[in-house]
């Protein structure tokens, strides 16, 4: 029963993630129609453009995409758990916070963001969890 619910949540989250991303290609490399103001493409383009060569961003994003995280989290919108932007806003990007949050991802828990528990991820290595957290903490606005 729990597995079926998780599968449904993952499918729902992936559908939401796909909808929220909107294909991605339309915001890349000058395909902005009309206005060419430098502050126009701030939200969608900024993360990809800002971090396109950042190994922390690239590695963390790959690991997040390969995980089940997007079943409960999105960059800018709460689904089941907080958005990555909300997490980044709450925690400073320090090694102490990276370690603490990586342990929370591995162990799971409840109470920090409400009463919906985050499932444990015991198969995730500490280094992979840290890479994912470093990526998330880059998203501070």
Describe the structure.
This protein has 141 residues and is an all-alpha fold. It is globular. About 21% of the residues have low confidence.
Strands, helices and their partners?
Layout: H1 2-21, H2 42-51, H3 55-65, H4 84-90, H5 95-107, H6 126-137
Helix pairs in contact: 3-6, 5-6
Number of domains: 1
Helix count?
A: 6
SS-based structural class?
mainly alpha
Identify the quaternary structure here.
single chain
Radius of gyration: 16 Å
Distance between the termini: 39 Å
Tell me the name of the CATH homologous superfamily: Cytochrome c-like domain
CATH topology: Cytochrome Bc1 Complex, Chain D, domain 2
What is the H/E order? HHHHHH
CATH class: Mainly Alpha
**Which segments are poorly predicted (pLDDT under 50) over 5 or more consecutive residues?**
10-39
Shape: globular
Which percent band covers the strand fraction?
Answer: under 5%
How many individual β-strands?
Answer: 0
List keywords for this structure.
141 residues, mainly alpha, Cytochrome Bc1 Complex, Chain D, domain 2, 6 helices
């Amino acid at each position: 029963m729990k597995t079926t619910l998780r599968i449904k949540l993952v499918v729902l989250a992936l559908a939401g993630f796909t909808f929220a991303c909107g294909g991605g290609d339309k915001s890349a490399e000058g395909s902005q129609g009309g206005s060419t103001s430098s502050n126009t493409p701030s939200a969608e383009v900024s993360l990809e453009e800002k971090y396109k060569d950042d190994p922390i961003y690239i590695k963390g994003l790959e690991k997040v995409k390969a995980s089940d995280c997007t079943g409960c989290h999105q960059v800018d919108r709460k689904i089941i758990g907080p958005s990555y932007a909300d997490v980044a806003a709450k925690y400073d990007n320090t090694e102490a916070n990276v370690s603490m949050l990586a342990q929370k991802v591995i162990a799971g828990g409840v109470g920090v963001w409400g009463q919906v528990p985050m499932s444990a991820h015991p198969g995730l290595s500490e280094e992979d969890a840290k890479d994912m957290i470093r990526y998330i903490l880059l998203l501070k606005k």
